[in-house]
Amino acid sequence: MSDAVGPPLVVLAAGLARRYGGCKPLAPIGPRGEAVIDLLSSDALDAGFGRIVLVLHPETGPAVRYHVERVWPGTVEVSFVTQPAPLGTVHAVLAARDAVDADQPFGVANADDVYGAPAMRVLVESLSSRAEEHVLVGYRLRSTVATGDPVTRGICDVDGSGHLVALTERRKVARLDEGARFAAGDGRDPSELDGDAITSVNLWGFRPAIWAVFDKAMAESGLDVAAGASALEAPKAEVLLPEVVARAVTGHEGLPVRVLTTESKLVGVTHAADLPVVTAELARQVASGVRPPATFERSRPARA
Fold it and tell me: How many C-beta atoms surround the C-beta of residue 92 within 10 A?
């Protein structure tokens, strides 16, 4: 496989979405009933990603694959891989390793968020450079919270050169009013958060050196990956990508992660109550010309 037509995007679609109550990647949020993964992947290809690698759950994966094979144009290059046990997002990315060239940079995104082509374009351009830094695309907090329902967000501390210094996960983040005031109900300080805070929503770009970091994190986790279901008996049996990156940034690895900010608005699905809000936002984007009226119109990479 070659990245001559653009790097691959690894899309994490293996979550069971218990808060949502369904398969979030297939939630019909577009003006024409497009699913989340349709809009996400179309934006990624329009921005310059060459192909899509979908990481699926054994239970919901067949439905996602059926949808993709039925709806997406045959010219879109897509690979399907399965995460055999829900051991976290680092484990999910590692499941995609054989679908990504060992010496190739790649992107990572959630399957339940529509990040927008502008944010994807920033990521592709960075991965296409010769820099050896990893990349995090950061959003303004106010652009990532759609409703009053609480969400989890990663608040970034960025130094003067634009590098990630710390990444702090805040839970139960909700909008306090119609303005830029937000609060985290996780009992930590500060409880009130700035709406302009740079926020991670798991849109990453990685260089090949990251594989060693992820392998080390899984080895140190104590989880018996081969045991599969037995590993799920452990409380919090997950190795999470933001936490691993944050430790590598501050630890002896000194992992270099550049934060590239975007003013794009995240359109994400966390709760079923989000659907009317995100559907209306996407319709507004189409009406204003921010978003094309149909998916997979602008970029159709040839199948290898």
Answer: 27
Average of per-residue pLDDT across 187-203? 93
List residues bridging with 174 in a β-sheet.
183
Displacement of CA 119 from its chain's centroid (Å): 12
Quickly count helices (H) and strands (E) in the chain: 7, 13
Which distant-in-sequence residues (6+ apart) come within 8 Å of 41 by Cβ? 9, 11, 52, 72, 76, 78, 295, 296
Question: What is the value of pTM for the model shown?
Answer: 0.91
| pLDDT value of residue 178 | 67
201 neighbors 113 (Cβ within 8 angstroms): yes
Distance (Å, whole) CA 142 – CA 175: 8
What is the rounded distance in angstroms from the CA atom of residue 19 to the CA atom of residue 144? 18
Average pLDDT over residues 139-168: 91
| H-run or E-run covering 181 | strand 181-184
The confidence score (pLDDT) of residue 153 equals 93
The answer to whether residues 112 and 89 touch, using CB atoms and an 8 Å cutoff, is: no
Q: What percent of the chain has pLDDT over 70?
A: 89
Q: Predicted confidence band at 272 (pLDDT cuts at 50, 70, 90)?
A: confident
Q: Does domain 8-287 have CATH number 3.90.550.10?
A: yes
Parse the chain into domains and list their residue ranges.
Answer: 8-287
Q: Are 261 and 251 in contact (CB under 8 A)?
A: no
